[in-house]
Design goal:
two-stranded antiparallel ribbon; globular; 10 strands; 11 helices; 317 residues; alpha/beta; 8-stranded parallel beta barrel
Length: 317
Amino acid sequence: MKVTEHLKSAKKTLFSIEILPPLKGKSIQSIYDGIDPLMEFNPAFIDVTYHREEYVYKKREGGYLEKVSIRKRPGTVGICAALINKYGIDAVPHIICGGFTREETENALIDLQFLGIDNVLALRGDSIKTEPAFVPEPGGHEFAIDLVKQINAMNHGGYLYDDMQDVAPTKFCIGVAGYPEKHFEAPNMFSDLKQLKAKVDAGADYVVTQMFFDNQKFFDFVKLCRKAGISVPIIPGLKILTGKKQIITLPKIFHIDIPHAFYEELEKCKDDNAVREAGIRWCIQQCKELIASNVPCLHFYTMGNSEVTRRVAEKIF
């Protein structure tokens, strides 16, 4: 079932989550252990992120350099298939530009179609740590809009090679990212909204936002989107702050603000446990306000921590 179909048929605000694939060497059980405590809240769908393989160059005998993989997470496609098989739930794989040629993207989408997966979240993806800025794969896409265009073309039977015979159109529901506090690379909010509108015009069916801690910024973002002619559903993305380190790292990594009232509360916390409790209280407050404004779905970035998500969900759903 497509994400947009879930949203259209819902009689109340839905619950959904995003999970990270485990690091190399971990079993699929680690994924199940993070999802099982949340199944009582009937998540409408589960997003599965994709993480590019990372490399370093190690100097070997004779002076030559060898490219060595240092970080690799199991494939998103396989994890989505496992989730569908175990839970009978709709899985939404992240499809990114970085690290893929257009041909590899097409092949991945064909695999997803064969598995009966009809939702994807199309993202540019982040740069790898050894690059100061995002560098597209040779023969790949530079921007998320180009990825959206390729997926939408396949939805209309358009594959890369015109000589293919009797091709079957795909039926992907395409999600894209939105940024209530502006993408950090955009010069201003106007230009960022212009890019988002272009992605929707290219075939995106819904928007899921970057995490935020200030609901007013989300409400303002939605108003600006509607004014710009973006009429597709907009799903708020939420993260529960769980430790003192995140007070610094989350704004730095994701280019977001922590509201003054929340920060004052966090300043009083003496340890991670106190921060986690404050984060849970703040997120519950966010959720109640968002539900009162009739958002279609609350999407939680669990980051592998199902316990805090469960504690919020049991107060909301």
